[in-house]
Amino acid sequence: MIEPSGRRERKKAATRQKIADTALRLFLERGYDAVGIRDVAAEADVAVTTVFAHFASKEALVFERDQDFEQRLTRAVTDRPAHEPLIPALHREIQALVRHCTAEGSAPVRRMIEGSPALREYEESMSLRHAHALAAALAADPHLCRSATACRATARFAIDAYALACRADDPGATVDEVFRMIEAAWEATAP
């Protein structure tokens, strides 16, 4: 995540993080459905409007790293060295993101998400948005020379690799297996 540079930006980032941390703690202690935005605001000692200034919805509190996730994926495409092949760069980034989602202590959050229809639906819509952003980054790269369909499919498969790995017994092996398929498909679409 990019560190805010000015005092005001740092303060806003700290407030945002405090709200997110408070919400997650309350959700895990009491259950997602038992906690409202007012509860989060009171516990974080901020106004309800402050919560909504930082998060568009209750579900967004759980997925507070959403923007960072999307930026990391698109930067794996746009910021890679010109000589570096695409698929290994995406593979590395997805592996890093999976390590985060499967880090020690993440299992209760995953169970909470899996146990909530609202959170599962939000996660799916978020995944579609990430796939769209990644596909746009792929299509915009003039060196890749792939069809829009190949870019969209590759993006969706990369996002699905992440989702599958976060739920797998062996997350790293799952990402590796899916990326072998992605690489084969990507190579098959070369002009």
**Unreliable parts:** none
Shape: globular
Indicate the radius of gyration in whole angstroms. 18 Å
Class derived from helix and strand content: mainly alpha
Mean pLDDT: 92
Task: Characterize the biggest β-sheet.
Answer: none
State the total count of DSSP E strands.
0
Strand content is under 5%
* Succession of helices and strands: HHHHHHHHHH
Number of helices: 10
Indicate the percent of residues in helices. Answer: over 70%
What's the N-to-C terminus distance? 36 Å
Write up this protein.
This protein is mainly alpha-helical and 191 residues long. It is 74% helix and 0% strand. The protein has ten helices and no strands. Helix 1 packs across helix 2.
Brief write-up:
This protein is mainly alpha-helical and 191 residues long. The protein is built from ten helices and no strands. The longest helix is centred in the N-terminal third of the chain and has 24 residues, at 7-30.
